[in-house]
Amino acid sequence: MAQARSTDPQTSHDAAASVNNISKVQKAIMSLLQASPMCDEKLIGQYRIWQQTDDRFPAVTDQSIRSRRAELVAMGIIEAAPYKEQMTTGNWANVWRWIR
Questions:
Q1: What pLDDT, on a 0 to 100 scale, did the predictor assign at position 9?
Q2: Please, are residues 94 and 70 in contact by the beta-carbon 8 Å criterion?
Q3: Which of 7, 14, 28, 38 is spaced 20 to 30 A from 91 at the CA atom?
């Protein structure tokens, strides 16, 4: 079952409780996107920061983070925001946000 952080609002706890069959990496991604919408580049960066201190963030490749995020999109748990964000490369990327 998905988990919300103890500091998250009740709505996040309710949403997390409603999600089943979610991997540990997907749960970690959901927790990041509940806190703030972000593109994959920022999502991976934040994941790496949390991975250093939180065992809910297992070691995975950058591609695995993108793949697990894509699975969450397919499940209807997150979606692309109606705006994009410029990455460090100068390219524009979708911004992902929590919708459940």
A1: 74
A2: no
A3: 28
